[in-house]
Design brief:
Rossmann fold; N-(1-d-carboxylethyl)-l-norvaline Dehydrogenase, domain 2; 2 domains; six-stranded parallel β-sheet; three-stranded mixed β-sheet; 13 helices; 9 strands; binds nicotinamide-adenine-dinucleotide
Length: about 300
């Protein structure tokens, strides 16, 4: 049994902490929202009144926060916990944040002799509940091997992307490509439908042809083509447009920081932003189809 400190018990962190408890680990939890702490303590977690309190005796400290500023503030802010973390603990930040921010925090950890991994996840709330997330990890291989059994409780696929910050870079690249594939698929489907084709027939042709991709395979954005996808349920559930906009913003930041060209990523961000501004922020990201359907 490991002693784990878990900070950030929202849509993702809550179920991740629950799965660690189900696996019989001792989990001390904190969130700025007291009801979320209470909910995990009802499942056997140790309720803490501050982030500093979860550190007490922890072998592992896991954070799952909204964005870069929250992670920087938690670890490096005026009341930041980094100086309070024991050098025998390993810190894993699972939040999706900018690589620059992730590097800033891990550099501070390194300076104090604290091992830190960035481990953003893919798989959404469903994956967090089912314990089937994909972890994309940056940091040393040796540190990853020490925490692998814990990550395997919360996820099915654990990838080592490279040194500190590499997990964030890989996650951002994947989500940028996903946004481009989804937008292109929606655009092609609408062009076919507008020219008299059946969306189901066209989907099958493209799936088996050179345009075949993940969206056509398992996540078709056109309503009525596939069962059990958000497109069949008014785009409810799944991966929210607002989160895709956030990740594409991180891709833009990373591109600027390294003077990289991301013309398609930039266009996808603009299309998703426009779609979000029309009230679609809380819908699944495959709802980008609606941007093409409305004529
Ligand atoms: P969320 O907003 O539901 O949860 C974040 C939690 O952090 C909230 O409960 C908030 O109160 C808490 N928090 C904020 N600042 C804090 C602090 N200083 N101390 C303690 N708690 C604090 O967000 P989420 O959906 O759980 O996402 C978490 C991260 O995972 C994000 O970076 C997101 O981009 C990423 N992610 C989310 C999904 C998804 O489908 N929701 C999928 C993959 C990755």
């Amino acid at each position: 049994m490991k002693k784990i400190g878990f900070i950030g018990l929202g849509n993702m962190g809550g179920p991740m902490a629950s799965n660690l408890l189900k696996a019989q680990h001792e989990v001390a939890v904190y969130d700025i929202v007291p009801s979320l702490v209470e909910s995990i303590s009802e499942q056997g977690g140790i309720a803490c009144k501050s982030a500093a309190e979860v550190l007490c005796g922890a072998d592992l400290v896991i954070s799952m926060l909204p964005a870069s500023q929250h992670v920087e503030s938690l670890y490096l802010g005026d009341e930041g916990i980094m100086p309070l973390i024991d050098t025998s603990s390993i810190v894993i930040d699972c939040s999706t944040i900018s690589p620059a921010s992730s590097n800033k925090v891990s550099t501070a950890a390194q300076a104090l002799g604290i091992a830190m991994l960035d481990a953003p996840v893919s798989g959404g709330v469903g994956g967090a509940v089912a314990g089937s997330l994909t972890f994309i990890v940056g940091g040393t291989e040796a540190d990853l091997e020490k925490v692998r059994p814990i990550l395997e409780i919360m996820g099915n696929n654990i990838f080592h992307a490279g040194a500190a910050g590499a997990g964030q870079v890989a996650k951002i690249c994947n989500n940028m490509l996903l946004s481009v594939l989804m937008t292109g698929t929606a655009e092609a489907l609408q062009l076919g439908v507008n020219n008299g084709l059946d969306a189901k027939v066209l989907s099958e042709i493209m799936r088996k042809s050179s345009g075949g991709n993940w969206a056509l395979e398992v996540y078709n954005p056109y309503p009525g083509v596939m069962d059990n996808v958000p497109a069949g349920n008014d785009y409810q559930g799944g991966f929210l447009v607002d989160l895709m906009i956030k990740d594409l913003g991180l891709a833009m930041e990373s591109a600027l920081a390294t003077d990289s060209s991301i013309p398609l990523g930039a266009l996808a961000r603009n299309l998703y932003r426009l779609h979000g501004s029309k009230g679609a922020g809380g819908k699944d990201f495959s709802s980008i189809q609606q941007l093409f359907t409305t004529r």
